[in-house]
Amino acid sequence: MPLQDDSNPGDLDWRDGQPFSRRFCDVYFSRSSGMAEARHVFLDGNRLRDRWAALAPGNSFVVGETGFGTGLNFLCAWALWEETAPRDARLHFVSVEAYPLARSDLARALALWPELDRFRNALEPAWEAFSPGWHRIAFASGRVLLTLVVGDAATALPRLDAAVDAWFLDGFAPARNPDMWSPALLAQVARLARPGATFATYTAAGEVRRGLETAGFAVRKAAGFGRKREMLAGALVRPPPGAGHAPWFARPAPHAAERRAVVVGAGPAGAATAASLAARGWTIEVIERRGAARPIEATRHQGVLYAHPSPHPTALNELALTGLQYSSRLLRGGRVPDPHDRDLCGVLQLAYDVQETARQAAVAALGLPLPLLQRVDRAAASDIAGIAVPHGALHFPGAGWVHPPALCAALLDHPAIRLVEASDATSLERGGAQWTVRDAGAILAQAPVVVIAAGAESAQFAQTRHLPLRAIRGQITLLPATRGSAALRTVLCGEGYVAPARGGVHSLGATHKFRDRATDVRAAEHSENLVRLERLAPALHLAVGAARLDAEALSGLAGLRCSSPDYLPLVGPIVDAGEFVRTYAALARDATLPLVSPAPWLDGLYANTAHGSRGLITAPLTGELLAAYLDGEPLPLPGPVATALHPSRFLLRALVRRRVALDASA
Ligand SMILES: Cc1cc2nc3c(=O)[nH]c(=O)nc-3n(C[C@H](O)[C@H](O)[C@H](O)COP(=O)(O)OP(=O)(O)OC[C@H]3O[C@@H](n4cnc5c(N)ncnc54)[C@H](O)[C@@H]3O)c2cc1C
Ligand SMILES: C[S@@+](CC[C@H](N)C(=O)[O-])C[C@H]1O[C@@H](n2cnc3c(N)ncnc32)[C@H](O)[C@@H]1O
């Protein structure tokens, strides 16, 4: 299924072979030479050649842009980066764009510059019909990261969490598009700039100059490009007072010391965290309780990339949709090399009852673009599935399934990652600048940073005991495929899920059992799964001969999900719980008090856990989030969503609701 439609959200026209916006009645770049203009205005205007040549090895640099357009500025910046920056430095390019171009238009525009072909050939295949929101795409093995924020800059920039070193202000002429140059928007540009950050823009309009000065920039006029006499450039000299985070949700300063970490747990969250850190030059040891030998069942099952979106803009919904697209992109990009281990065959989420039907209608009404999802009726759903289904559905053509161990293995496959299996981390202890991770008495590993990604066991350590995690047992049935069931072409989800066969078995899941931490495989739960299948797709139930199957003879896999009270993962720094309660005790009397004391961080201790039933779509993205925290980078999702994942949120809630003893540790 192609992931690019031919819509023309940019309302693009071609004039003399050059892109022109009918919506804004303006050109995307100079008619004489867009590339020379990009270099003169944005690269030279920000003095990037010199600044990048002066970067120390391992450093990173953040460019912010208003208006991604054709991506010409991005490719010019990337080309200069390759030429000037140290090999192991990382470029972050964060760009906000309300009307992303169709891939064919992007390709046609960029084909004007054969010098940039090498970079265009990487960008073009990664270019989708993006839905609104945050999209992170890695290029050059992660040395160049694009965070494309799709949406109106006026609403997107206030939600961006980044510290920009150089701004490219490129949002069509102010007379044609005043919204991209409003005082409120320029105030956001200043908020997102590091002290001393520079900007450059091709316009010399008086209101832009005044707006930038009011926002805190020193502005100078420079020689413009081509027929333009002047342009503006400058630097942030009066940083705006930071509204920042409340201190309990603030983050420790980026990690400046030795870039070495221990990750506890080699499931999707631990593997993704290790991968994101290793891509940034960290050295990682991953401690995993399980041994290398796996039961045969564990080598066969499938996990589904499944979002279940809601029509409401909740943090959970934004996380799920951003994560679904991030994980799908990872798989599309070949991250799991063996095609037997993943298939982006699409997912049909069936409208199995009245509430689900209403929910799907409301989601469809949001008008998310087709590559992400579309609503289909029962006949179309059956057509897509290859087998009769009893309901209409939401169809996610770009989603599918992956073999979870293969995903973890692919993420861990990096020379800077060492996997230590059959090792049980039982305690953590901070001494000097290092954490020591022990198995009973023996030292397993030491490093300045530890990330707890131990799933349902994440609260087992003295330092994490306050995290309100619960385990939910689940069981998958491995259902032998038949000639009839081989017709299934796409994943079906409803109150459970079933995937097209992999190696002769369909994964059928999954049960939910509370207050049960056992992981034995049970015939009774196979029977439950078969009942689920009958409701989900009676035709498939028939095709696999489910009525005749002996539940006792079926095989499967049981495990524990780790869930939090608000069903959101916990991702971020860990505090000393007792000290936290003492520091912010006054909030129990008045939750609105403007307290300023910094949170009592446990230096270098982080968590990435509580991924519930959706770790395959949330964990790869939160691996990036954690790495962004540690390296002080732009976040891969909206700031408010990241805050909603903060591990201290439950301590704070308990405090405000007076559900914590104020004289004792929580
Ligand atoms: C039956 C079932 C079906 C599921 N189906 C899907 C699905 O289709 N799609 C989906 O997205 N999600 C699914 N999930 C959920 C998904 O498996 C989780 O969201 C995901 O595994 C979470 O990843 P994690 O790394 O946080 O935790 P885990 O996968 O649980 O990994 C934690 C790891 O830490 C290790 N560990 C724990 N304690 C220690 C210690 N002290 N020392 C060393 N190692 C330790 C554990 O051995 C484990 O390997 C399913 C879960 C179950 C149980
Ligand atoms: C001059 S073009 C950018 C050219 C681009 N930098 C390049 O390298 O091709 C301006 C871009 O701003 C986008 N834009 C206009 N108004 C916007 C808004 N309010 N929010 C976000 N993007 C906007 C347009 O869709 C267009 O792609």
Short summary:
This protein is of the alpha/beta class and 666 residues long.
Could you explain how this protein is built, in words?
By secondary structure, this protein is of the alpha/beta class. It is built from 19 helices and 32 strands. Strands 16, 17, 18, 25, 26, 27, 28, 29 and 30 form a 9-stranded mixed beta sheet that branches. An 8-stranded mixed beta sheet has the order 6-7-5-4-8-9-11-10, with helices on both faces. Strands 20-13-12-24-32-31 form a 6-stranded mixed beta sheet. Helix 7 links the parallel strand 8 and strand 9. The two termini are 51 Å apart. The N terminus is likely disordered. The structure holds flavin-adenine dinucleotide and S-adenosylmethionine. The site of flavin-adenine dinucleotide has 37 residues, from helix 9, strand 14, strand 25, strand 30 and helix 17.
The global form is: globular
Instruction: State the secondary-structure class.
Output: alpha/beta
Rg, Cα atoms, Å: 26 Å
How many strands?
32
Strand percentage: 25-35%
Helix content estimate: 25-40%
Helix segment count? 19
Give the integer mean of the pLDDT values.
Answer: 94
Sheet bearing the most strands, described? 9 strands, mixed
How far do the termini sit from each other?
Answer: 51 Å
Poorly predicted segments:
1-6
Small molecules bound in the structure, each named once? flavin-adenine dinucleotide, S-adenosylmethionine
